[in-house]
Amino acid sequence: MNGTQFGRKGRRQIGIQWKMYAILILFVAMVVGVLWFFQVRMLHYFYQSRKLNELEICAVTVSANLENSRDLLQKTEQCASDYYTDIWVYRIDGNQANPIAHARGLMDTDIPYLESKMERLYNLAMQNEGFYIAMVPLNEFYNSMSFEILDDNMGEPESYPMIAGYTERLSAVYVGIYHQGAYRYLVVQSTELSPMSAMMNTLQDQTLWSGLILSLFALLMAYMMSRLITNPFIKMNDAAKQLAEGKYEVNFSGSGYREINELADTLNYASKELAKTDRLQKELISNISHDLRTPLTMIKGYSEVIRDIPGENTPENIQIIIDETSRLSELVNDMLDISRIQAGTRTPEFQVFSLTDTVRDTLHRYERLCMQDGYRIEFSCDCDVEVMADRGMILQVIYNLINNAVNYTGEDKYVLVKQSIEGDNVRISISDTGEGISEEQIPMIWDRYYRADKMHKRATVGTGLGLSIVKGILELHQASYGVHSKIGEGSVFWFELKAFRDMNY
């Protein structure tokens, strides 16, 4: 798989595999960085903080037993053993410091000039609110007459001193002065702080090698994951290219992931819908060509007869030409209406009008058809009802639904138009006695030029685009509409509008 590809506009695009490489390597770098920061950079901080916390725990334990010599000795020896620290406890009586407990957990040797060192530490603790912590060279504190203070908490008794990057052995000296009864007590502890440089170098090497190994694993995982993820997409991409070439029978298949399966189902649905749209488009072109060709042929034929044959310039022939021209005009106007509705450029102009009178006015247009061809169109209503809508659009809806009923009614040529009240709504239903429509075909009859019988015929009245216009107009009015039909029992098309009774529509 190529790492980069060029998109439609020539932009260089990175593939999923390389993006996953980058993401996992970045993740590894972040993990290694965090490990290095805490294990190497902050190691001395955590180490010294832990050792000083242990000294503080010892000081609290020892100070709680200062007045009980037996318990004091036991707790002192236990702390010295548990935390590897040397502990000295003195009782201050006036100017005298009397040793009352001593436990060794770090060094077995005696400290030269111990008393002078304790006096110095006592004075420093008194200057620092009774708590003093110092970092001193271990060798000087235990083997020399004096010692150098490298860092301490003087002036900040509640804080800990910290030394980073030291290479020699240090001693952390913890000094506390406690008041119990009539006496003051001096508690001094000393523990070793080992040099961290060797350990830090070791941890740095470990972190480096861990980072390299993790990076290799990340690359391997990125490759495997990208293959698992991208293979279904590659297959679907190839199928999509076939779909773009008009091969609607292509099948999209996804496996392994819920999202990919859902995408495959969506693309399969889109493929079926595109196939249906393509079929309807071809039928539309065929049917429009048929409806255009018939009147044009008749206009041309009668015009040639009038031109070539003397005496054929009769009112009847001229009327045929006029009727076919009007039919062409209606077809073009209906197509324009559909285009305007779908484009959103035709919007309803609401007004209050009598829906009952509008139905009656529409039926007057069919009087000539009823007299000439024997159609029976009846209207049933209980009362006059007003609605708030676009009268011209609703008139077009009623006209097209009646046209549809006339075109598909049975041999008795009977059509019933009925007005009824349904709660707050008024329903107009148009019934015919034709062959009916199957349930699976009902959702598609609102498409342009769709024929339930799949046989396109020239409409007796109208242009054959009526139901599509009806759908568009009623949806602009947010009105309910539908059809009830059974094979062999005819069809009932209906729509509902809210009855107008006051100013609230």
Task: Tell me which CATH architecture of the largest domain applies here.
Answer: 2-Layer Sandwich
Overall outline = elongated
Spatial strand sequence of the major β-sheet? 4-3-8-7-5-6
* Weakly predicted, low-confidence segments: 1-10, 454-458
Describe the model.
This protein is 51% helix and 20% strand. It folds into 4 domains: 4-41 and 200-244, no CATH class; 43-195, Beta-Lactamase; 258-325, Helix Hairpins, CATH 1.10.287; 347-498, Histidine kinase-like ATPase, C-terminal domain (Heat Shock Protein 90, 2-Layer Sandwich), CATH 3.30.565. Helix 2 packs antiparallel against helix 3, helix 9 (355-364) crosses helix 11 (391-408) and helix 11 (391-408) runs antiparallel to helix 12. The chain has helices spanning 16-41, 43-63, 69-83, 114-127, 138-143, 197-244, 258-308, 315-343, 355-364, 367-373, 391-408, 466-476, and strands at 4-6, 12-14, 85-93, 96-103, 131-137, 151-152, 170-180, 183-193, 351-354, 376-380, 386-389, 414-422, 425-432, 480-486, 490-498. Strand 1 (4-6) and strand 2 form a beta hairpin. The strands form 4 sheets. Strands 4-3-8-7-5-6 form a 6-stranded antiparallel β-sheet, sandwiched between helices. A 5-stranded mixed β-sheet has the order 10-12-13-15-14. Strands 1-2 form a two-stranded antiparallel sheet. The chain has 505 residues and is of the alpha+beta class. It has 12 helices and 15 strands. The model is unreliable at 1-10 and 454-458 (pLDDT under 50).
In short:
The chain is 51% helix and 20% strand. The chain has 505 residues and is of the alpha+beta class.
